Automatic annotation (TrEMBL):
Domain DJ-1/PfpI: 5-185
Protein name in the entry: DJ-1/PfpI family protein
PANTHER family: DJ-1 PROTEIN, DJ-1_THIJ_PFPI FAMILY PROTEIN
Gene3D superfamilies in UniProt: 3.40.50.880
Annotated coiled-coil segments of the chain: none
Family according to the record: Belongs to the peptidase C56 family.
NCBIfam families: PfpI
Length: 193
């Protein structure tokens, strides 16, 4: 297996699990993951939030960990990366307002590179205009944005993921096992016993 260079775009109040778990798991299997945030440099941190499903009308939110970035957004070049990871949480809501973030997402989509988006990560995909004619899962509250962007919202179980070509998407962190397994397959990663 050839190790891949993976870019993760994140920001303050990103969902804790949806940032920490793929960041660590993808490195565990030998890939390099650069986590970046507009306006911050490697070594700086973003605050995370823990979203849980406790029987309310929507998820609850609690303070999470501090997540340390390991690269500088202003100096990364999307062309140097093989794949993109977009965690959910509240970060995509404001990251989608940054033209440089949108340009990066559009690069990965137009180049056909693997993209893994989870939960509210679909907000970035919708804002970048890369969902037309695609099926995408996300947190159900993002369904109107997926549809408004010309995509087909996939209402799948919370612990499952969906593959549509180079796009791997999932509703929320309970899907990590399926989401990451499917993303690794799209990446061409083989894990052998």
């Amino acid at each position: 297996m050839a190790a891949k260079m993976i870019l993760m775009i994140t920001g303050d109040f990103t969902e804790d699990y949806e940032t920490m778990v793929p960041f660590q798991a993808l490195q565990m299997v030998g890939h390099t993951v650069h986590a970046v945030c507009p306006g911050k440099i490697g070594g700086e941190q973003v605050r995370t939030a823990i979203h849980d499903f406790e029987g309310d009308q929507t998820y609850s939110e609690k303070p999470g960990h501090r997540f340390t970035l390991n690269a500088e957004f202003a100096t990364v070049n999307a062309e140097d990366y093989d794949a993109l990871v977009i965690p959910g949480g509240r970060a995509p809501e404001y990251l989608r307002l940054d033209p440089a973030v949108i340009a990066m997402v559009q690069h990965f989509a137009s180049a056909g590179k693997p993209i893994a988006a989870i939960c509210h990560g679909a907000q970035l995909l919708a804002a970048a205009g890369v969902l037309a004619g695609r099926s995408c899962s996300a947190y159900p509250a993002c369904a109107p944005e997926v549809r408004a962007a010309g995509g087909s919202f996939a209402d799948i179980p919370i612990d499952e993921a969906l593959v549509d070509g180079n796009l791997v998407s999932a509703p929320a962190w309970p899907a990590h096992a399926d989401w990451l397994a499917k993303f690794l397959k799209v990446l061409g990663t083989r894990i052998e016993p």
